[in-house]
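Predict fold of ELMO3 protein; 719 aa.
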Amino acid sequence: MPPPKDVVKIAIQMVGAIPQLIDLQQTKPLASVLKDVCDAWSLPNAEQYALQYTDGRQTYITESNRGEIKNGSILRLTTSPDQEAERLYSGIQSNNSDVKTDSLKKLASLSQDVTFAQEFINRNGLKKIFYIVEEGNDTGEMLAHTLKAFMELMEHDFVSWETLSAAFIKKIVSYVNMNAVDASVQQLSLSILENMVPTSRILFELVKKEVTLDRLLTHLQVTNAQLQLKAMALLIALLLAASDAERREMMDYLRERNIRQFIHKNIIHSSEPLADEMAHYLYVLQSVSLNLCERRMRTSMDPYSQEQRELLQSLRQTAFESESEAPTSNFSTERRRSLCAKEFRKLGFVNNSNPAEDLRRAPPGLLALDNMVYFSRHTPNAYSRFVLENSSREDKHECPFARSSIQLTLILCEILHVGEPCSETAQAFYPMFFGQDHFFEELFCICIQLVNKTWKEMRATQEDFDKVLQVVREQITRTLSLKPTSLELFKTRVNALNYSEILKLRQTERLHQEETLAVPVLELRERLKPELLELIRQQRLLHLCEGTLFRKISSRRRQDKLWYCCLSPNHKVLHYGDVEEGVNSPPIESLPEKIPVADMKMLLVGKECPHTKEKSSGKQNKDVLELAFSIVYDMEEYCLNFIAPTRYEFCLWTDGLNVLLGKEMTSERTQTDLDVLLSMELKLRLLDLENISIPDTPPPIPKPPSNLNFCYDFSQAEQ
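Predicted 3D structure, encoded as tokens:
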């Protein structure tokens, strides 16, 4: 007979005593449980003790979290949080440096527990920490423990970051700006400033003023990967908290300091593999930089703006100034207007009498004009060749430069997600972005020449304009998917992917689709599906057994805390627990928490998850919703919440959990993998039928012969 649900069998340890095995009644007050435990060991003053987990984060047991205790848990009888808080409160004020250091070290460890943190803060403990930082001159181990304890205490959100004193903030800033400081102190100081920046405008301005961009760039150039990461985190926090004008000013300064080239050489191409967190920050830096184009992209051309009219006229003058034999000033107004209209028509403007009308559409707005001007000024030979070459063609065969530029700018904005908010979890950045200043404009220069090249290869006319741009979009996206490391490599690859190559790829894909739609092939696919689905199930379970690192993400900021989850080799238990940065695959024995697969009841995804309901529903959380899933377990009372690092991991984990629950795999990755496996298997099976058309219906079975006399009788031959 199973034990009652409100009774949990646990072990309780104490130093120097024989452990107790008890049946913990969850309905019994915790104070009474502690009194019984203390009485068994003849300990007086039971109110001075508390129970605590022995592994993991060693959380204190309280009335609010006691329901999380599982059968077989091992607890420790220890000093109560209020007693421990009182002892450490006194210890950090000790005149003995060893006692003070040990107390701060213990404080940094215990402050992760919300119960202890509340007790310590209630004793005005943060004030003492402020005093140690503000008045102390130590820059070594003691200070590192102090800052670590401060970070952990602030993590619980009991105290606002805006309440920090100016003296404390200046001291933290000084550790970042000093050279002769322990690296761990600088890392913690950078993390503290990173947390401060998003909380208020005043703190942002203070940090931006005190910690210069030059200082952050100095930290980015060190060989210590963790210090480099924290410096990048603060830089990104400052950029995200800045106004549009401030962000533009900061990015201009960083460009002057060649930050892109430094990142390209020393971070992306360093000997060490790129950490996930750094990959995310590089993605954000790329996104913030590209979004500087958004204002111009969303601004229509103003026909009354002198500056914009001059830019437009410069396009005409650069292309045709050598053609005019006589200065246009000698012509009548009507003649000059007629000549300008003719030249604008040659440039490819639809409305040649008033070309500003072509740029009224936003997006791409003025960004298209900027790109055309950049192309004409920085590659004048290529620009003149493009325009003059098409001027000499028949009207219907000329490639319209202006119209193509406007549409191409829009295509590049869509491909590069210009104007879209940064994702909280994405890590997909283009390495070539950091190898080139004016990346967007330089990419445009390559692609507009690609438009002309593809136009000629397709022998296109004006009616084929949309088809040509569709091919160009495909050329760009296929090349970008290869992640070229430089614009030169991109240029080489995108030009190699000419129209005939695109046709071959399309034909291959079409033939493959037609092959797989034949009735006999469809029947074969259906027969192969169960076997291949089982193969996918086994792969998913194997991936769960290998385990994955997950990040804890709050609505306030991207957390740097990690936890690991994996499935036991016998597929019966999920193990999980917190891990330190740098630990990629901890042994399964080191993970303190576990959930029996038999207790798992349901899988929730997206908006159904409890941890996504707590978040605001802004655009920036859309990506988190797409990566969120939860396991409901133990009579549907508890949930284990996940935010997958990538969509790929999300698909594999949700599929694997569905397999454990005996349900169908529903992710898009399952269909993709199944299609790949089916395609491979079908090609192998149909290898002998190459170039033989497969009929839709099987050939008729011939009638049986009138007699079977043609059969050879082996028995008579043996006689």
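The first strand starts at residue 7 and ends at 13.
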